[in-house]
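REQUEST ID: PR-0412
SUBMITTED BY: lab tech R.K.
PRIORITY: routine
TASK: structure prediction, single protein chain
INPUT:
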Amino acid sequence: MARNLVNIEEVSKAFDIRPLLIKVSLGISEGERIGIVGRNGAGKSTLMRIITGEESADEGRVTKSNSTNIGYLAQIDNADPTATVGDVVLGNREKHEWAGDSRIREIFTGLFGGFDDHLFERTFGNLSGGEKRRVGLAKLLIDDVQLVLLDEPTNHLDVEGVAWLADHLKKRTDLAVLVVTHDRWFLDEITERTWEVVQGNVEEYDGGYSAYVLAKAERSRQSAATEARRNNLIRKELAWLRRGAPARTTKPKFRVDAANELISAEPAPRDGSELLKFALNRLGKTVLETKDMQVKAGDKELLSHLTWNIGPGDRIGIVGINGAGKSTLMRVLASELQPAAGKLNTGITVKIAFLTQHLDELDPTWRVLEAVEKVAQFVELGKGRTLSASQLCERLGFDRDGQWTPVGDLSGGERRRLQLTRLLMDAPNVLMLDEPTNDFDIETLTELEDLLDSYGGTLLVVSHDRYFLERVCDRFVGLLGDLQLRDLPRGVDEYLELRHKQSLPTQSSEVKTKSSNAAEERQLKKDLSRVERQIEKGKAEVERITAELEKATSSPQELLELTESLAKIESELATREEEWLSITVALEG
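STATUS: complete
OUTPUT:
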């Protein structure tokens, strides 16, 4: 039987007159993996600080076993700014103590690419946010602890860093883990239980994020008092989880039969043909086209000879290593920067909105609703649907009272939500999002994803949040630091495989040759299912355009456009059919 590490008994905590925790009782045992979810401000971080002893409870008590050492990674990485990275990570350890430890070497390799003398001699105060996060994680994972508390551990990490951290924690069976994060892919990868902090209480669920979504949906269905809108959102989210994303590495961890019963009548998150039709009506044929384009950041070349066509209704996720040029590429496409060479052609009807990683300055005396209404009173969603400024604010986490908050009183996360709300109110037909999930809680992310499901324009997303990328994007491209933009038919999985191959030393063909194992077979089956869905979708699109061609005999221009669209889709369909054949052969072999 697993030993109990921490007990939380009848704990209450309030700030001013607002209760955050009300008589909460919980326990954490050896090896447990627990995710904490809830809205921003619900008390997730407060609960963690009470467990560590950094904050005291108003009532109740927290006890831990005598042999339990707790490690804590806060949202903000703090250390003596004058201390070197080596001093922060290794402390007083002698070189022989850690140099011969395979676990420590693995952590250095995973987080820093090895023991980098140059990095370890730098002072902590001169590091970037991502470097500070990696330093904090390295110190925590090296220390002799039995329980680690992680508050937004994936902040500032790229997709590759998040994947490494998840893999490392899964292998560390000696550790109990308690994690607060908005990264739902990370939650699903490492957690086996979920605590939801809501209205002062902590509700417990078995399983990770996917299981939590199902259980939440089942409880909602059984409870007449549950709000209809939240129930629909959860079912829609569950429908996507059940159908799967193009590149999920594991199947959702919940009972398939129960999921099938719950979502049997649930439509797909997005109707691709309807979105494409809406996008064509607003955008026309040309959106963004690059020809032999070169992208630079100062004197550093990031992309060379880039020829790329972004069409109406495309939903593209951009992944890549830090410094490869993801944000710079977005700025060039948004015409904020000029290409160093080559051409960028922007369609004449294109209206771009670009959410950057930086917050625009707004008049601090404006109220939230006032700041949004200065852009527009209503926004069109298509099919005759509209949202008022107040309704959109509410969808993105500003309730009726919050809409009258002065901009100057907003937190960083709330300012970012306001920035996004103002962009959406301007009804753009091309939306570019650079790390849009920063500082958002899971419920706000779910609302944003639901809004983007209705968005008929072209969408480009840079994000380290893998779940969000796979949820809102249909295609993926990657920057691997080799001056090229690569198409990734299998999404984030393919990107991580390419990065892994880059990191391997040159090996002989005999060493590289590997027999198919169970994991490879599972991946092939997932790929086969994905390709079959894409083929079905492509065939339906061919039928739709063929039917429109039969009706468009009187308009030569319309005939030309439809013929070009049909040729493009038939070409993509042929590619998918070739991929299907190669996967089938690999499975049979």
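NOTES: Residues 249-255, 506-516 have pLDDT under 50 and may be disordered.
REVIEWED BY: pending
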